[in-house]
Each structure stands twice: as structure tokens, then as C-alpha cells.
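[09:14] KT: can someone run the structure on this one? pasting the chain below
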Amino acid sequence: MALYEYVTQEQLAGFDKYKYSAVDSNPLSVYVMHPFWNFVVKFLPTWLAPNLITFTGFMFLVLNFLMLAFYDFDFSASTAGHEHVPSWVWVAAGIFNFLAYTLDGVDGKQARRTSSSTPLGELFDHGLDSWACIFFVATVYSIFGRGESGVSVLTLYYILWVVLFSFILSHWEKYNTGILFLPWGYDISQVTISLVYLVTAVVGVETWYQPILLHFLYRDLFSFMIIACSFTVTLPMSLYNVLKGYRSNSLKHSSLYEAFLPFLSPVLLFILSTIWVVFSPSNILELQPRIFYLMVGTAFANVTCKLIVCQMSNTRCQALTWLLLPMSVVVMLAVTGVVTNETLLLYVWTATVILAHIHYGVSVVQQLSNHFNIFAFSLKKPNSD
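[09:31] RB: done, C-alpha cells below
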């Protein structure tokens, strides 16, 4: 039995009918990475479960996050006058990031190779991807840091939200069209950042202090590329595909209200977290940026996973997620000063969000494993010897 049955019977019936449909037109992915992944997957043993590959890749990103948290907890290590992160850490970060990216690319190929493709595999993959956003962004931030030549913690907060909304756009698009259009920026960013970690190990973080042209710094290029890619490519293409489907009456949902319903919870989460940032009596984002980012990224992943379940089961997305209610209370306690120790409140709430998200994930995986009569991390059948 699952810890809690989050997936309804209607959704389970929808999963039974689910068929994977995706479009990947990125030249880097099509002509370079897919051939590379096809080569790599041949070396994997056929008894290795695809979900185990997915989870291992995810844990490499968590390891990067924890490693940088140890050496650069408050994102100040890269600033002038501070003890910098050791070079070997950047080498490890580059290798781990590329390994995570590679494993994320071969898990599906291993599933097809071993005839073990299931809706659970896709849900597990994309669910962990939604959580990986925060670990990836926070680790990259340590390259530039929050100093004079870096990026302020407030700017990085908004950049994080751009990344998070860019991620959910693809799944919102599939929720409405039935097709997952894989974003071009993902492959390019993974390869680039893996290389940047390695370059940082060789040349040092001081290299990123230097302007590229006139007063245009590397940190400006970093911010510009993320924002420009989101607003000039990802967002316009997603809106175009959904509105095209609306005009041709081919959307899976009947009205624009229903089509845009999945954005309600993420937008409310953004509003609540931003109210806390702006009206915090102790300026909590300056005090605890890493923990605040972790809280926001985990809560967002929880909202996104619920959308992915609805999208894959072809069921209606719920307007609000329950996590927003206690978060509203937490934010009110913080900004009104009822709880004076804001840092303690943030730590307790972050731990609550993480535990709630893990509970949700484990419960859904157990429920779908039972439904499809499979093991999540083994290719053996539950009823086989």
C-alpha cells in the first residue's frame, strides 16, 4: 500500500491510456547528444532499472548543491577578499553536472532497450527534473556570487523564478496540446555550465570579474542569456502552440480559463514568496538566500509534479495546491513580526516543505508501482521469484 493515495482512480485510469509524445528539434540534442547517449547506453547492464539511472543523475545535482553549500553557503566565496571555493570542487561540479545530464539522457533509452517503459518512468524523470532546477541554479550562482562583480541575491531570486516558469511552460503546453515540446535551452545550458565549472577550476573565479566588453560583465551575460532565452524563445513558442490549438479547437481543454488554470498555484506561490522577500523585517533573503531558494524551488516542484500527474492522466488540474494555505500563514507570521526569529521560521518551514514533497513523491511512486505491478527500482516483477 502507498503511504497516501494522492493519485485518484480517474487519474490511474488515465495513466493506463497514456502514450508518450514529445518533439525534440534542438540540433545539439539531435545531432550530438542523442548519438552520444545511444553509444553510452550500450555499456549499461540490461538488469539496471531506468528509474535507478534517473535517481542517480538527480543525486549528482543534489551532491553538487551540498558540496557548494559546504564551501559557499551564503554565496560570498567568489567575491574579492573571501576564501574561494577550492579548484577541485569546480572540477567535481563539472563532472557531476555532465554525468547528471548524461544519465538524464540515457534513462529513457535504457527503458526502451529493456522493454520497461512505463508512465511511472516518465513521471519520475520529469518530477525529479522539476526539483533539480533549484539545485542547478543555486550551484551555478556560486560561480559569480553576490559580490560587486556578482549578482545580488534579489536578482538571483527573480532569475530562479524565470527558470522555474520556463520549466513549467513545457508541461503546461503538454497539458493543453498533448505534446511535450522539449526546450532548446536545456541541452545548451547543461553542456555550457559543465564546461564553465571546469574552466573556473583552471582560471579561477577572478576571471569572471573581468568585463567582456566595456562595462558588460560575465554576470550580465549570465543573466541576459537566461532571461532572453525564456522571453524570446520558450514563452513565445509555448503560447503560440497553445493558442494555435485553441483556434483550431484541438486543445484538450475547452476554454482559455481551463487552459491557463495550471498557472494559478505557481503564480500564488510566487506572490507569497515575494511578499515575504519584500516585507521581511529581518531581510530574510539577504540573511538566508540558499535556504530561501531551496524552499521556493521545492514548493514549486511539488506544484509542478501535480500538474505533470494531471497532464499525463488527461485529468483536470486542481486550481490550488494545499501547500499554499500553510505557507500563507507562515508568510503572515513572518512579515507581521509575530514570529521574531525569522531564520528559525524559514528553516522549520523549509524542512516541512521538503518532507511534504518527499512524502508526496514516495506515495505517488508506490501507488503507480502497485497499479502497474512493477518495482520502481528493479526490472523484476513483484510476483516473480
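[09:33] KT: thanks! The longest strand covers residues 211-213.
[09:34] RB: yep, looked fine to me
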